[in-house]
Design a protein that fits this description.
There is one protein chain. The protein has 232 residues and is α+β, with helices and mostly antiparallel strands. The chain is built from six helices and ten strands, in the order βαααβββββαααββββ. The chain folds into two domains: 99 residues, Ribosomal Protein L22, Chain A, CATH 3.90.470; 106 residues, Ribosomal Protein L22, Chain A. The chain has a three-stranded antiparallel sheet with strand order 1-5-4, with helices on one face. Bound molecules: coenzyme A.
Length: 232
């Protein structure tokens, strides 16, 4: 996990390890915060993957599937590392696994959203019913828990909304653990995935979806020292 707000100079320094196309993409953003999220996410990915592969972070090469999901270039990925990035508000999440599809999502909780109307559009029938049964003062948190779990699962698949949002149900009730409850049309798929919540602070909901099982989950809070340039 990384955070925004380490200062413009440090973000500039981090952008040095990005590829020219990543830097160009970052420069096209109108808002500094959007630019910063991209730079920190990509820099974090490069630093961690560079460490795992024992190569310079600016030498990491990404390729993309037809839906834009980045992965390590096959030539650098004999260990089959898979990763995913998410950013919202001040938080940037990066998750990496060996030999398992992974998706991660963080959502900044916004209290003023019309959650029932959004759920009616994006949630499955079961999720909508579960949300309607949640007490009003807990509904906003339950909504964002559901959203982050759904999005983490969608992102693990890597095909965006080609995977219908109503083709699976995740848990959302405050007393239920994060879980993929049901999948359609293949009901056995639900048993092949693990969804976990990640605690990134009180104003956020975040979730991780991993294919198979999670033997060990290590979480790291990456706080760059603004006085020290990012390692290559
Ligand atoms: C990219 C996508 C998968 C998620 O976007 P998002 O939630 O706005 O953004 P996040 O910050 O969580 O993730 C963005 C990152 O995901 C990665 N990504 C891009 N395309 C991806 C894809 N098809 N699958 C998985 N990850 C993808 C990238 O690393 C990207 O960040 P970067 O370009 O800065 O490196 C988006 O295209 C999408 O389809 N979202 C579904 C939206 C929706 O309706 N969700 C409903 C949930 S109930």
């Amino acid at each position: 996990m990384g955070r925004l707000g380490s200062g413009r100079a440090h973000v500039e320094a981090m952008s040095e390890i990005l590829s020219p196309d990543e830097r160009q993409r970052a420069e096209r953003f109108h808002f500094q915060a959007d630019r910063e999220r991209l730079v920190v996410g990509r820099a974090l990915a490069r630093i961690v993957l560079g460490h795992l592969l024992d190569i310079r972070s600016d030498e990491i090469q990404f390729c993309y599937n037809d839906f834009g999901k980045p992965s390590l270039a096959p030539a650098q990925n004999s260990a089959d590392f898979q990763f995913n990035v998410s950013h919202s508000g001040d938080i940037v999440l990066f998750a990496v696994t060996a030999r398992r599809a992974v998706g991660v999502d963080v959502e900044q909780i916004r209290e003023n959203l019309e959650v029932d109307a959004i759920a009616a559009r994006f949630f499955s029938t079961r999720e909508r019913a579960d949300l309607a049964a949640v007490a009003a003062d807990q509904r906003c948190a339950a909504f964002f828990a559901c959203w982050s779990r759904k999005e983490a699962f969608i992102k693990a698949g890597g095909v965006g909304l080609l995977r219908g949002l109503d083709s699976f149900d995740v848990s959302l009730k405050p007393d239920e653990p994060a879980m993929l409850l049901q999948t359609r049309p293949d009901p056995t798929e639900a048993g092949r995935w693990v969804i976990r919540d990640l605690d990134v602070g009180p104003r956020y909901k975040a979730a991780l979806a991993v294919e198979g099982s999670i033997c060990e989950l290590k979480t790291l809070d990456w706080r760059p020292d603004p006085g020290v340039p990012p390692c290559r």
